[in-house]
Amino acid sequence: MSSKDNFKIMNSSLIDSAMLLVGRVMEKSALKMPRSPRVERVSVEIAGLAEAFDGFTICQITDVHYGRVIGSNFLHKVIETANALSPDLTVLTGDYIDEGSSYIEPAIEALSKLKARHGLLSVLGNHDHFYSKERTTDMLAKYKVPLLDNSHAIIEHSGRAICVAGAADYLYDCPDAAAAFAGADQDVPRILLSHNPDFAETLDQNLKVDLVLSGHTHGGQIRLPFSYAPLLPSRFGQKYSGGLVNIRDEHPTQVYVSRGIGVCFIPIRLNCPPEITLLTLRAAPEEKSDWAPRIVKFTEAV
Ligand SMILES: [Fe+2]
């Protein structure tokens, strides 16, 4: 046997050992997926919110990544928990599946069972583009889940209204907030669904967006001491690792980033439990002298 053959055998056994090790780590890591989602209750103050909407609740579900790790049992637990919150509105902010387009239909069919007084609204995320924007869009239509693709819906409640718009995905599509809000009354509070929170940084101040609801970063999935998330897919460092962020003073725009439900790339969540969010809208006091950029974190040890 030549030294070249010896090298090949040694190399292949090293690769086998490395693969085995990765497999064992993945297997053990899967056990770190918490068994149930955590409900985060968040109050969001919005200037000019009509009394009719003071206390209006929005349930946000994002980044389900339905597939082998997040299976049907877990997804049904998520839906049951969300429905038990009896929200006024439920929003889905993208990344519905993982691992293959065969998961699209069962994921959307299950999510279409989410219930809310004013129904369900959705946008797409980057993973929905990886696997098939067309099929995801078709399935949302089939199961009657309205998709906001640079468009908006007006929610009327006790004679008053809010506008909920949805942006196309920031990484794989052409999000256009101006088009999304086109024709909406400027005096009506404005909420934007955008899978990726980085898009909030590009918003024109004149659009007067009050609140952006996002996911995408998964809270980093792994949170080290001091809540540091080393793997965060955002151009803005830790800013959008989870929680409520106030990004503007002149017309305050707040961004809520959910940790989401599922995982991608690595089946691990460490100190970063899956999240169902229940946001309660509150009328902001007239005087906002203490209004300052702030970040509120919700991540705690599991
Ligand atoms: Fe995601």
3D architecture notes:
There is one protein chain. The protein has six helices and twelve strands. It is an alpha/beta fold and 302 residues long. It has two domains: 1-31; 37-296, Purple Acid Phosphatase, chain A, domain 2 (4-Layer Sandwich), CATH 3.60.21.10. The chain has a seven-stranded mixed sheet with strand order 5-6-7-8-10-9-12. Strands 1-11-2-3-4 form a five-stranded mixed sheet, with helices on one face. Helix 3 (104-111) links the parallel strand 3 and strand 4. Fe (ii) ion binds at residues 63, 65, 95, 125, 127, 216, 218, 260, 264.
How does the SSE layout of this entry go?
Elements: H1 3-30, E1 38-46, E2 57-61, H2 72-84, E3 89-92, H3 104-111, E4 120-122, H4 126-131, H5 133-142, E5 151-157, E6 160-166, H6 177-181, E7 190-193, E8 211-214, E9 243-246, E10 254-257, E11 275-283, E12 295-296
Helix pairs in contact: 3-5
The protein binds fe (ii) ion (FE2).
Fe (ii) ion (FE2) is lined by residues 63, 65, 95, 125, 127, 216, 218, 260, 264.
Shape: globular
Radius of gyration: 21 Å
Query: In CATH, what is the homologous superfamily of the largest domain?
Result: Metallo-dependent phosphatases
Structural class: alpha/beta
For this structure, the CATH topology of the largest domain is: Purple Acid Phosphatase, chain A, domain 2
User: Unreliable stretches, pLDDT < 50, 5 or more residues?
Assistant: 7-27, 291-302
* Total number of helices: 6
The ligands bound in this entry are: fe (ii) ion
Taking the sheet with the most strands, its summary is: 7 strands, mixed
On the 0 to 100 scale, the average pLDDT is 87
**What are the secondary-structure elements, in order, as H or E?**
HEEHEHEHHEEHEEEEEE
Strand order of the largest sheet: 5-6-7-8-10-9-12
Strand content: 15-25%
CATH class of the largest domain, please? Alpha Beta
Under the CATH scheme, the architecture of the largest domain is 4-Layer Sandwich
- Helix amount: 10-25%
Can you count the beta strands? 12
Task: Report the span from N to C terminus.
Answer: 54 Å
Number of domains: 2
